Amino acid sequence: MRPNTLIxxxxxALGAGLVWGLVFxxxxxxxxxxxxxxxxxxYLAFGLIALPLALRDWPRLRRLDRQDxxxxxxxxxxxxxxxxxxxxxxxxxxxxPLPTVLIGTLPIVIAVCSNLGDKALxxxxxxxxxxxIGCGIVLVNRQEMLRLDASRELGDYLAGGALxxxxxxxxxxxxxxxxxxxxxxxxxxxxTWATAQGLATLPLALAGFLALSLWxxxxxxxxxxxxPAPGSFIGLMLTLGLLASWLGTLLWNRAxxxxxxxxxGQLIVFETLAALAYAFWWRGKAPGSVTLIGVGLLVAGxxxxxxxxxxx
Length: 312
Prior knowledge:
The protein is mostly helical and 312 residues long. The protein has one domain (3-311). The protein contains 14 helices and no strands. Helix 3 packs across helix 11 (230-258), helix 5 packs antiparallel against helix 6 and helix 10 (190-216) runs antiparallel to helix 11 (230-258). It is globular and about 60 Å long.
């Protein structure tokens, strides 16, 4: 792989991770809001933001065929709404630590599944970086596992864990499917494809919002749908829609076109690192030594992965 291509691809994945990390801090900033409302609100904002962007990009969007729009709808359903719906339900059942740890395995799961199909790199070259990233994930999430709530039933943990594994499956499928579609269509611009996914998300998010309104509108003490801080809610949803959804998708599309999926899958650790940094900033406390060692291993694993592909 050419060094310039590798650097640009990794930079795009880093940018995507930085904006995706916002998704984990916003629920802390809107602690009184139901998780499903935050999920639907984010994707409703994504779809609405895509409308004016589509006007600007209309000449290229018109060139998309029926298969492109069906694929955008499929990716929006599985990689956006279904993934976050399963994750939110898992957190409600089993609390945050267990689902967070399971979701943290995504860089390894995506890299392994992608390499099984593409054989982009010999396993002897791939395994060292995956082992280092795995050790980093264990250390970073060690503190989370210590926070497991002993008062919860075993059945809640089993059901929550199963839902979180479903979320892992959704977001293992999404980047592999998305990358293959883009790599088969080099003429398809990353921004155009991000806008197309936003447009495909809009009707799904509207349907989800209507269903949620019928189900959760009678919540006692909650002023549906804008809640106790309407200005903050609308502003943060628009921020997530523009940055975490549209810009993050654009950057990830670009990385997916430039890099083998086996490598880009490992680079999802940037999202974990960004989420950690934002969470510690929000709490106003520094990470412990074990967490810092885990962060160092994650960065070292990414460097090993990049080095393996550059040599390959």
